[in-house]
TrEMBL record:
The lineage of its organism: Bacteria, Pseudomonadati, Pseudomonadota, Alphaproteobacteria, Rhodobacterales. One of its GO terms (molecular function) is phospholipid transporter activity. Coiled coil: none annotated. Residues 40-117 form the Mce/MlaD domain. This is Phospholipid/cholesterol/gamma-HCH transport system substrate-binding protein. PANTHER family: INTERMEMBRANE PHOSPHOLIPID TRANSPORT SYSTEM BINDING PROTEIN MLAD, INTERMEMBRANE PHOSPHOLIPID TRANSPORT SYSTEM BINDING PROTEIN MLAD-RELATED. InterPro entries: ABC_MlaD (IPR030970), Mce/MlaD (IPR003399), MlaD_Phospholipid_Transporter (IPR052336).
Amino acid sequence: MQTAAERAELWVGGAVLAVAAGFLFWSMQGSAARGLGSGGYELRAAFPNVDGIDVGTDVRVAGVKVGRVSSVDLDPSSFLAEARLRIPASIQLPTDSAALIQSDGLLGGAYIELQPGGAADNLQPGDEIEDVQGAVSLLSLMMKFVDAQSSDSTERAP
């Protein structure tokens, strides 16, 4: 025989499971509506440096999330990191488009920004985006700045 407390716990557990299932359904619907599901096509981009980019990283156009990175591999012949980008079929990019690795801020994550070009022809599934800019290392930029400041101060010293 169940007590009232056991029945209440059972109902609360069932409600938690129902809410979790609702959130799962809602998140799946949201990604399908934005074209981030299994549909679409893949483009390739070979970067010299992909710091912060991994499978699942956002792909954006004009700041709007339009896709995800589906894989990142090293090309053994060129030693470049080849990223495969899954884009919805509704977004057709010109052949002279660019792919840049951007940062969400000083401490934010990285994402790939696609900048559409103006060519008449569009990229086809499996094509490579030729115009790329890899990740910029904040540490190396700061070291260059410190080095430049120290060399300026030594040149001014009498």
